Amino acid sequence: MPSENITTRRQFMTASDSTRIAYYVDDFTDPWKEPQTLFMTHPAMSSARRLYAFVPHLARHYRVVRMDMRGHGSSPVPSPDLPLTRERLMQDLLELQNHLGVERAHFLGAAGGGYLAQWLAIAHPERVLSILLFASKPGLKHSQAASWIPQIEAKGLRPFLLETIGDRFPPGYADKEHIAWFVDEIARNDIEFIKRFILKMTGLYWMDEVGAIRCPTLIVAPGDESIGDGGAYPEMHQRIPTSELLVYDGGRHNIGDYLADRCAADALAFLRRHFP
Amino acid sequence: MPYVERPGAPTLHYVVDDFTDPWKNAPYLILQHGNGRSAQFWYSWVPYLSRFYKIVRPDVRGLGRSSADFNLETEFTLETCVDDVRAIIDHLGADSVHFCGESMGGMIGMALATLHPSRVRTLTLVSTPVSINERGKVTFTAQDPAAGKAGSVDTWLEASNRNMRFPPDADPGLVTWYNAEFKKNRREVQAAMGELVNRANVASYLANIKVPVLGLYPTNGPLTTPEQEQMLINSIQDLRLIHMPASYHKVQMIFPAACATHLLHFIARYDGVPCREN
């Protein structure tokens, strides 16, 4: 019985290194108008499915396009001999933007997905209307993320996630079924590729480049960020003159999951304020 | 997108939009279009509803992407339309659903609620009359002569839009889109449904509707006149009537946010589904 919204509008694009990229379009705007496009990119170890809650808030006003980053969700795992670099990941999103014929767009990213939005704003400002970042710092280098890999290998992915769930959800988060679904979703990905991806991200940090970002930038920061350095958010805000900083007091890393409606509402308010 | 295949009956197409929390197994809400239209005409309601309910938008047989492989003369009745909806509810694997129909779609809903009460949790009627008066009658034909000639769909659309469907200050883009989308459907099916609509009368169903009913109606609507409304009020046991601030028929497209919000609150009260406004 079909009840999965995610598969009904799935399409594929072939990236310039022959890797297939899955994407999903949701558009409930008035068909006789020309809406702006909002791309959304999910966290690492995730997929476009995890961004479902954002869609209805935003798709009445924007054409929403969710991309599965290479190797995640329905985007097949790329061959190990294909380079996995910052440039390649950004290029996937840029090529999707070209594929859809969108000159300039908004880019919303949660955690690792926000890296792609930042890279685009730095390298291709002419293609970017705004970026909206949720728990997304300039890289994972100054974090404990590198220690995740040996832990995953020693304990298994699910036990590792459940043990460290306090980094992602607030203490005493009541919806246990949500956490179970969350863990299941992560476990759907290819574990070897996940490890490769995390390892790559932990080697990158580009705080010294964010000052080049000139578009309206929303930085939403979990107030109690415990993955990486929470001080990175105000530092980003200081360096990006066109940015706004919104702190969710007491928030943990996965605000895009357990506060999705709030995040989407703040995203919509930001967009409408800057692009009436 | 899902298709329902059945022996001896046309294949039906419907759209599902579901942005609910997957672990909550949200209930289904069917949005049924009316005369000559299709699932597409509900697009503006979906964002207000789909975070809390799985939204199902069927295409009536022969319209949208549903098959026209059936006898237009003998197999296009209120009963076959009801059977089609029941087939979709079965295909969803649902015991019961919420049903919301606009105009003729609401008439299908009334018949469904009477004939298959256990499958319907609540019924919402959007601009649904008991029978169609002169202002609402379909006058174009399957032959669809050139625009401007009697019996053409263009002539009928222009006149009926002006006379009853949209206010004079409606967004011209909306009206243009409405006409273009309407004309995408098979004319012979629309003409046949028009005949069904022209003679439809659901008066005999009203007193047998046992489920809670919400009405979302224009104020002094051109088709849903005070006399028509009074018949609903007199005969439907559990009816709540809300009037939108316009005296034109197509409140579905003039007030999508308000209508969808009224609908959401109505059905959520029934299920106890939390639907906070964030």
Total helical segments of chain A:
11
Let me know the largest β-sheet of chain A. 8 strands, mixed
Shape call of chain B: globular
Q: Which CATH architecture of chain A?
A: 3-Layer(aba) Sandwich
Question: Total number of β-strand segments of chain A?
Answer: 8
Structural class of chain B: alpha/beta
In one word, what is the shape of chain A? globular
Derived from helix and strand composition plus strand pairing, the structural class of chain A reads alpha/beta
Mean pLDDT of chain A: 94
Radius of gyration of chain B: 18 Å
Instruction: Please provide the ordered H/E string of secondary-structure elements of chain B.
Output: EEEHEHEHEHHHHEHEHH
Average pLDDT over all residues of chain B: 95
Could you describe the largest sheet of chain B, including whether it forms a barrel? 8 strands, mixed
What proportion strand of chain A? 15-25%
Helix content of chain A: 25-40%
Number of helices of chain B: 10
How large is the share of residues in beta strands of chain B? 15-25%
Oligomer: heterodimer
Q: How many DSSP E strands of chain B?
A: 8
Structure description:
- By secondary structure, chain A is α/β, with parallel strands linked by helices.
- Chain A is about 35% helix and about 15% strand.
- Chain A has eleven helices and eight strands.
- An eight-stranded mixed sheet of chain A has the order 1-2-4-3-5-6-7-8, with helices on both faces.
- The longest helix of chain B has 16 residues, at about 255-270.
- Chain B has a single domain (about 5-130, about 200-270), classed as 3-Layer(aba) Sandwich (Rossmann fold).
- Chain B is of the alpha/beta class and about 280 residues long.
- In chain B, strands 1-2-4-3-5-6-7-8 form an eight-stranded mixed sheet, with helices on both faces.
- At the A-B interface, helix 2, helix 7 and helix 11 of A face strand 2, helix 1 and helix 5 of B.
